[in-house]
Amino acid sequence: MRSRITGFIAVAALALLVAGCDNTANSNATANHNANANATATATPVVANTNSNRAPTRAETEANKERYNREAKESGRKVGTGTNDTWLWVKTRWDLATADDLRDSTINVDVDNDVVTLSGTVASAAQKTRAEAVAKSVEGVKSVRNELKVQASTTNANTNANANHNANRNANANASPHRGNANH
Asked: What's the domain count of the chain?
């Protein structure tokens, strides 16, 4: 999974480098690249076209349907055989990957007969609700099964543990009788 994300970042960087060499490129490319680079923290962002600043179109998805189905299978995801299932898988993943408030999440998407199932982890109940709302907003989704688990991020847990440890250490140091207290 990490190598797939690293590969995506490398391809995106290469595409932006090539686009940056073109004098006709959009002057907002740097700002758009930064926004998209931060959005890669979700499970597996989708890039179906050479312009990674926009979602793939339905036509592009249909043209690359075999590739998307193979990608889903290789990543352990399920894409059903319904007419819209591949499109809904690509579009839902894209929308989740680009939602600013879901960057710290690992959200997996499965689709079967226009029903989207979300699994993985999010940092808060608000993110769980937001992910479901994003998936429901994709045109063509009949319903969403939200199986996301709320789990505080490891980084935040370690930061809090270190802060508590340091607070306890400081409290113990301040209570020490050898501190040179004038009242001692």
From this structure: 1
